[in-house]
């Protein structure tokens, strides 16, 4: 089931590629492990950066959510130092089997555009985001330049 | 960026607003479909799952999936679609599987009681009419039909199911076959590969072509037989001698070809000699005729001189043709070149003599004519007698010339025959020597095999081949028999090797002795 659905999703992603996102299996023998990258949105301090992501599916996909994380260091209130992402639709208790990979990826792009400080993973960054927007912008840009530039 | 954002927002809209809009849907479809479900028989999917031949959701469709007819869990065309009270539709199997993991609609997470799922008959029919490939497509079944009929096809028509196999029973790639050697069972398709490596299959030794009589299961070949195989030990030698034998055979073939090429040439030469002989005989006959008629008719003599000259010319031409053949011989028989050239020289000399003779003849004829003219056309007895004498002497000379020519031709023929004989002798000798080499190889092999066998039979210290046994066997033939005591073949083989290795040794020691004395 998981393999057939992932195959179908991959075919669909190849036919209708997402803007600023590219993704696919890391090697042909294992369709359960995908890798990709997201270009930093132009209306965000992450502009100009390339952020690598890693998606690990399980054989019980789509009944359980995939494990998604950033492998590029990023300064963001909802992404921790390990790259773990706090986003509602990927949480175990909120995952819906009908959610597809392209929806997950779109959610990640949106998260970069609009961080969610009400449900933070990095409380200190969230506080700066709320109190000192200029400082947040600057630090995020510095991080992007330092870690996400090719 | 705005685009992606808005799309995402759309999705979230769907997620959140579904509850509201879908309630209406569920209400209407609930009432309409539920009644139909009661009346109509269950859709084909149920029967297929009963057969448990395959996952019906794994069917391959002829046309690519349309999103409107797609289950959002498996991303395939709906199979036995059911709707939840929230209005969302999934395959029955998909929603049940999802509910097992977590109770909630896979799309809107509304809690669902499995008993509340109801079949969407119209959708089910639409999806059942989609064209699908036979699940045995990979095995070779190219059948396509409506999805609802695929169960029937698998049951009755498809020839690629082992249990339902019909005419092609003997060759069906899907039928399970039990290996006759190791008694394991697999599909025929796999069996064909298995048989190549089946550890229990009886196979001959890899060196059976050299005479190893061993036969046994493949497993034993590597593990047991090869370490013991007497042929394996001399494998290198066997392969070498095989390649040598092949080379010799090839050479033999080549020589035979050359011999065949030579044969028609020899025949041609023989014919040539025959022709020459015939023409010479003709000349001799005409000569005799002329000698008989010359007394009566002088002018006839003149004509016959002319004809004789013509014959001489003809012969001369034939001699000129000769060199066309001689080079072919020369190429092969360089030593024969001298003798053939000798014949040519002889012929040249004869030709010169004949031409001078011709000249003499013409002079004679001229003088005859002039003398005739001098006599004013009247033949005087003196003149006649003179002419007669001249003719007789000419005849004599010509006869002797012909004799030498005949002798020359005879010697030529002899030499040709000799040349042919020496060539064929040479070829014969070569064949003989090849045969001897083959024999030698065979003897060597035989000897080695026997020695191998001896070694196996008497695993104790083997008699060192050659030296001590050789001394014993060579000096005391009586003892040799008792020492060997084995089969007669054995003793001959040993005897042979002894007689070969025996003689050189004293000579070697002699040489050393001489060297010693010199030093
Ligand atoms: Zn489904
Ligand atoms: Zn729902
Ligand atoms: Zn079929
Ligand atoms: Zn069959
Ligand atoms: Zn077998
Ligand atoms: Zn063997």
From TrEMBL, chain A:
It comes from Lobosporangium transversale. SUPFAM superfamilies: UBC-like (SSF54495). Its EC number is 2.3.2.23. This is E2 ubiquitin-conjugating enzyme. Pfam families: UQ_con. It is an enzyme of class 2 (transferase). CDD domains: UBCc_SpUBC14-like. The lineage of its organism: Eukaryota, Fungi, Fungi incertae sedis, Mucoromycota, Mortierellomycotina. Belongs to the ubiquitin-conjugating enzyme family. SMART domains: UBCc (SM00212). Keywords: ATP-binding, Nucleotide-binding, Transferase, Ubl conjugation pathway. InterPro entries: UBC, UBQ-conjugating_AS, UBQ-conjugating_enzyme/RWD. GO terms for molecular function: ATP binding; ubiquitin conjugating enzyme activity. Residues 1-149 form the UBC core domain. The active site is at 86 (glycyl thioester intermediate).
From TrEMBL, chain B:
Residues 168-212 form the TRAF-type domain. Keywords: Coiled coil, Metal-binding, Zinc, Zinc-finger. Residues 238-286 form a coiled coil. PROSITE patterns: ZF_RING_1, ZF_RING_2, ZF_TRAF. Residues 71-109 form the RING-type domain. Residues 1-37, 455-519 are annotated as: Disordered. A zinc finger (TRAF-type) spans 168-212. GO terms for molecular function: zinc ion binding. InterPro entries: Znf_RING, Znf_RING/FYVE/PHD, Znf_RING_CS, Znf_TRAF. Residues 10-35 have a biased composition (Low complexity). Residues 489-500 have a biased composition (Polar residues). Pfam families: zf-C3HC4_2, zf-TRAF. Gene3D superfamilies: Zinc/RING finger domain, C3HC4 (zinc finger) (3.30.40.10). This is RING-type domain-containing protein.
């Amino acid at each position: 089931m998981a393999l057939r659905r992932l195959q179908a999703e991959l075919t669909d992603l190849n036919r209708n590629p997402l803007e600023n996102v590219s993704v696919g299996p890391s090697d042909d023998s294992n369709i359960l492990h995908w890798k990709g990258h997201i270009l930093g949105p132009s209306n965000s301090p992450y502009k100009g950066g390339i952020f690598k992501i890693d998606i690990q599916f399980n054989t019980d996909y789509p009944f359980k959510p995939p494990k998604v994380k950033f492998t590029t260091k990023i300064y963001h209130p909802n992404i921790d130092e390990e790259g773990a992402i706090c986003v509602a639709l990927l949480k175990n208790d909120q995952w819906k089997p009908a959610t597809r990979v392209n929806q997950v990826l779109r959610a990640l792009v949106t998260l970069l555009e609009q961080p969610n400080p009400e449900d933070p993973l990095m409380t200190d960054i969230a506080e700066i985001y709320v109190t000192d927007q200029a400082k947040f912008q600057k630090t995020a840009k510095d991080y992007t330049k330092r870690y996400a530039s090719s | 960026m705005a685009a992606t954002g808005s799309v995402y927002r759309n999705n979230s809209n769907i997620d959140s607003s579904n509850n509201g809009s879908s309630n209406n849907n569920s209400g209407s479809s609930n009432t309409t479909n539920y009644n139909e479900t009661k009346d109509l028989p269950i859709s084909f999917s149920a029967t297929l799952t009963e057969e448990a031949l395959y996952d019906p959701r794994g069917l391959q469709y002829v046309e690519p999936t349309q999103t409107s007819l797609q289950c959002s869990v498996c991303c395939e065309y709906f199979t036995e679609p059911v709707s939840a009270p929230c209005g969302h539709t999934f395959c029955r199997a998909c929603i049940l599987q999802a509910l097992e993991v977590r109770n909630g609609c896979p799309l809107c997470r509304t809690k669902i009681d499995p008993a509340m799922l109801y079949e969407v008959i119209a959708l089910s029919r639409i999806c059942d009419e989609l064209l699908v490939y036979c699940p045995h497509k990979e095995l070779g079944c190219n059948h396509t039909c409506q999805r609802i009929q695929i169960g029937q096809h698998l049951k009755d028509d498809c020839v690629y199911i082992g249990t339902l196999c019909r005419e092609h029973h003997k060759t069906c790639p899907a039928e399970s076959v039990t290996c006759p050697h190791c008694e394991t069972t697999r599909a025929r398709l796999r069996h064909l590969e298995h048989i190549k490596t089946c550890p229990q299959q009886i196979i001959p030794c890899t060196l059976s072509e050299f005479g190893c009589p061993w036969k046994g299961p493949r497993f034993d070949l590597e593990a047991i037989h090869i370490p013991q195989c007497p042929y394996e030990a001399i494998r290198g030698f066997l392969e070498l001698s095989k390649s040598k034998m092949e080379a010799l055979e090839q050479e033999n073939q080549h020589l035979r070809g050359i011999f065949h090429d030579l044969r028609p040439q020899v025949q041609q030469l023989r014919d040539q000699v025959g022709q020459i002989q015939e023409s010479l005989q003709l000349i001799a006959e005409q000569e005799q005729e002329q000698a008989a008629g010359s007394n009566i008719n002088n002018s006839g003599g003149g004509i016959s001189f002319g004809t004789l000259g013509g014959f001489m010319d003809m012969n001369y031409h034939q001699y000129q043709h000769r060199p066309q053949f001689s080079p072919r011989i020369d190429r092969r028989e360089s030593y024969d070149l001298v003798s053939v050239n000798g014949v040519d020289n002889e012929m040249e000399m004869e030709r010169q003599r004949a031409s001078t003779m011709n000249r003499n003849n013409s002079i004679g004829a001229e003088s005859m004519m002039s003398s005739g003219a001098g006599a004013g056309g009247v033949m005087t007895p003196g003149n006649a007698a003179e002419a007669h004498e001249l003719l007789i002497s000419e005849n004599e000379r010509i006869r002797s010339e012909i004799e030498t020519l005949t002798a020359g031709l005879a010697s030529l023929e002899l030499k040709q025959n000799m040349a042919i004989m020496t060539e064929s002798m040479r070829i014969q000798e070569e064949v003989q020597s090849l045969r001897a080499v083959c024999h030698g190889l065979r003897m060597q092999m035989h000897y080695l095999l026997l020695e191998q066998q001896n070694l196996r039979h008497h695993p104790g210290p083997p008699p060192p081949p050659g030296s001590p046994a050789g001394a014993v066997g060579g000096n005391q033939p009586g003892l040799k028999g008792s020492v060997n005591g084995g089969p007669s073949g054995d003793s001959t083989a040993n005897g042979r090797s002894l007689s070969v290795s025996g003689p050189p040794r004293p000579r070697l020691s002699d040489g050393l002795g001489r060297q010693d004395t010199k030093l």
